[in-house]
Design goal:
alpha/beta, N-(1-d-carboxylethyl)-l-norvaline Dehydrogenase, domain 2, 2 domains, 6-stranded parallel beta sheet, 3-stranded mixed beta sheet, globular, oxidoreductase, NAD binding, oxidoreductase activity, NAD(P)-bd_dom_sf
């Protein structure tokens, strides 16, 4: 099977690696040449535009940063849709699987525009980060037509463990935004907790071990604290992207008439981090803005 893949960033690279390891023929497009060179060295085939990807592959996958990028890649000039011969949807219809985090309204619109050229568009955001891709343990939340989902599920199994069809177009995006708004709230809260502990003279290792055995523990503490104590803020998932996801969640909640008070507060924390120039750092670096305000640093043996 020939698979097209667009976007060879933090998530796209290990995904392509997994697809190649499964024996798929993969045609790739990316804006930066070094990523193309990497993929070709791994065994992928390079193309010069999304349009060419649409011409070559009946299954196109994308891992991109913003909804506007997704729209441009699929529906812009030299986009994927220009490479598809217009026909009625059927069992052999092209399937476009967007693994990015976009808003539900974007996913609904893109699915409608895909149908106009006889293609399926699945919003299939993922959770687990690049380490989850490498381990094959990602969670994938899929919105779109079920027949298209069933066709691509075996491909998604190349790098994911839990793959769930949530409902029609846009529903995968709803679930992902809910997940990431919790990521933001939990990360902001754990940052405050560990800075308060440091200010109060509690060794961060002791605090971590006690919280881990208590009711305040969360997955995000296990993810963030090891990076915080080592001051390792290399981006696995950066603050700017989390801020984008929280903004999309707030927009969707406003559309549905649901107040998100805690998410709005977490958004303020993210904006403060962006103002300090931390946008490209890992989300664990959210703690740094509070550390600077208080005058402490959370690290190993920080008593």
């Amino acid at each position: 099977m020939h698979i097209g893949f667009i976007g060879l960033g933090t998530m796209g690279r290990p995904m392509v690696d997994k697809l190649l390891a499964r024996g798929y023929t993969v045609w790739v497009y990316n804006r930066s040449q070094p990523s193309i060179d990497w993929a070709v060295a791994k065994g992928a085939h390079a193309l010069s535009s999304p349009k060419e990807v649409g011409e070559r592959a009946s299954i196109v996958m994308s891992a991109l940063p913003y909804p506007e990028t997704v729209e441009s890649v699929y529906f812009g000039e030299n986009g994927v849709q220009e490479g598809v011969q217009k026909k009625a949807p059927g069992s052999d219809a092209p399937i476009w699987v967007d693994l990015s985090t976009i808003g539900p309204k974007h996913a609904e619109l893109y699915a409608e525009r895909a149908r106009e050229v006889g293609a399926y568009f699945l919003d299939a955001p993922v959770s687990g980060g690049p380490m989850g891709v490498q381990a094959g343990t990602l969670t994938v939340m899929v919105g779109g037509e079920r027949e298209a989902f069933l066709r691509v599920r075996p491909i998604l199994e190349s790098f994911a463990e839990k793959i769930v069809h949530v409902g029609p177009p846009g529903k995968g995006s709803v679930v992902k935004l809910i997940n990431n708004m919790l990521v933001a709230v939990h990360t902001a809260a754990l940052s405050e907790a560990f800075v308060l502990g440091a200010r109060g003279g509690i060794d961060s290792e002791v605090l971590y071990e006690l919280i881990k055995a208590s009711t305040g523990h969360s997955y995000m503490i296990d993810r963030a604290y090891p990076l915080i104590k080592e001051r390792d803020f290399a981006p696995r998932f950066n603050i700017a992207l989390l801020h984008k996801d929280v903004r999309l969640a707030l927009d969707y909640a406003a559309r549905e008439g649901v107040p998100l008070d805690q998410v709005a507060l977490a958004s303020q924390t993210l904006v403060r981090s962006l103002a300090l120039g931390l946008g490209q750092d890992d989300i664990a670096a959210i703690i740094r803005s509070l550390e600077q305000m208080v005058g402490v640093e959370v690290k190993k043996h920080s008593g």
